[in-house]
Amino acid sequence: MGEIMDTSNEIFVKHPGKTIINYDNEKVVITRKGTLNFMTQGIKGSKTIPIKSITSIQLKKPGMTNGYIQFGVLGGNESNQGVLNATQDENTVMFSKKYYNEMTSLKENIEKIMFENNNKKSNSSESVADELLKLKQLLDSDVLSQEEFDQQKEKLLSN
């Protein structure tokens, strides 16, 4: 299955290195091109980061040096040593001043997706708990047998 992503959720950073960032509700894809990226990152192709794996997003505003956006991931060891080390982190994208507003929007949009995904998870676990309570009430009032209760409980918990 090919990766077709909405180009409205695409940012093309041309400076300091050529990098394309695509994102949707499931993932962020970082694709690096050009000589500078080859020198700092080597040949790595596209990097896909599942949204559910992102634990933090750090945005450093450009000043005397380039800025960067860094995606912290579960089990990752992102650099917290500043711009120089961030250039070699595969979950970091460097950018010049003119891209700062786009990167701020990117950070906000991905954090919004993360928040919405977390809310969906908590709502679904609440509904499973509610269903279990209803089943227990049906069992207690002898509408369901113990066997029927166990079968329904198994179905709910396996989803």
TrEMBL record:
Describe the location of the SHOCT domain by residue ranges. Answer: 130-157
Q: Which domain of life is it from?
A: Bacteria
Residue intervals passing through the bilayer: none
Signal sequence extent: none
Entry's InterPro entries? Answer: DUF4429, SHOCT
Q: Which residues form the DUF4429 domain?
A: 23-110
Pfam families xrefs: DUF4429, SHOCT
Q: Protein name, please?
A: SHOCT domain-containing protein
Q: Which organism is it from?
A: Companilactobacillus nodensis DSM 19682 = JCM 14932 = NBRC 107160
